[in-house]
Amino acid sequence: MILKEIYMRKNLLLACTICFVSHQLAAQSFERIDPLRHTKETIQFMNDGNGRPFKPTRGFEEEGSPFFSNEYLESSIQLMNGKSYHRIPVKINYLTGELLFKTEDGQEMSVIKPFQRVALVKDGQPYVFRSGFPAIDKQTELTLYELIDSGTAVLLKYTSVNFQDKQPYNSVNIIRTYNKKEVYYSYIPSKGLTALPSETEALVRLFEKDAVLMAEFANKHKLKAKKEGDLKKLFAYYNSIKK
Q1: What are phi and psi for residue 193, nearest 5 degrees?
Q2: 56, 101, 63, 100: which is closest to 180 by C-alpha?
Q3: Strands 192-195 and 73-79, how do they pair?
Q4: Which residue has the higher pLDDT, 204 or 28?
């Protein structure tokens, strides 16, 4: 009887050990723990024919920047065909509307296949960019918007960049100055894409039958239509009552 009990305990210990090891291996497989993952993902991204060489314009001094970030940031990219790639170093060029990425040998490339989602982290803050919305103003369905809030109503930010070139008197150098412009949009499937007005009173009317409720919320919290933080609070509240 004692031998049988010892045998059963050994079997139980072996089973627990196997279960623990299997769980660890499964977790590692799920998390894709791989020191070469960055390299593999970038190579795969290139092998799938997603890029073409990017040739930046040079020959001038710059003031400001046409990029979301001047540094390449690791990102997750989802193409329109649903295929996803991870840990791809990218830069968003607001001037040209291009998404740039860097190969392992340092070559800058422009993504040529339509993409629908880019997720990245800048200064510890997560950002998501989306495309695929209806064409409006000068934007197309391929235009990239920053996703500010989502739900029944989606809050988006479109950033455009233009520039001015000046050559100071008695100087051979050209100075290119970049200027950014931000426009906010709401997207509701039944209404499409709509540019947000700059006045709070006009903004709350976009919520139609909930306009009175939204006006009360905006007045209570002293929200302004010109402030991104206030827009986010307004849309977050609307989406919370629509769940």
Answers
A1: -95, 130
A2: 63
A3: unpaired
A4: 204
